[in-house]
Amino acid sequence: MERIQRIIEFLQQQPKDNFxxxxxxxxxxxxxxxxxAKELFMAVLSDSxxxxxxxxxxxxxxxxxxxxxxxxxxxxxxMEAAKLAKDDHAFRELQAAYEDLVY
Length: 103
What we know:
The chain is mostly helical. The protein has one domain: Alpha Horseshoe (Serine Threonine Protein Phosphatase 5, Tetratricopeptide repeat).
């Protein structure tokens, strides 16, 4: 909880910091606070669709929440964003998770 509190304190100073919001979402996932994590990942991607790392984690979170269609949608969006960013590593990671879910 101390890590979460410190991240929240930093976010109070920089509320739109994607790194901090992403980090807080990951901390919430560790605690099983999937809905809080989902909201943060969605906020990051709403503000910054080029923040590639959040697509994978959002889709995985949606899988945990039994939202298969939502997860598929975010994997697809993430693959498209990774292509635009020419981030082959992220694209392959998203594609593998997508294929595991779909096939």
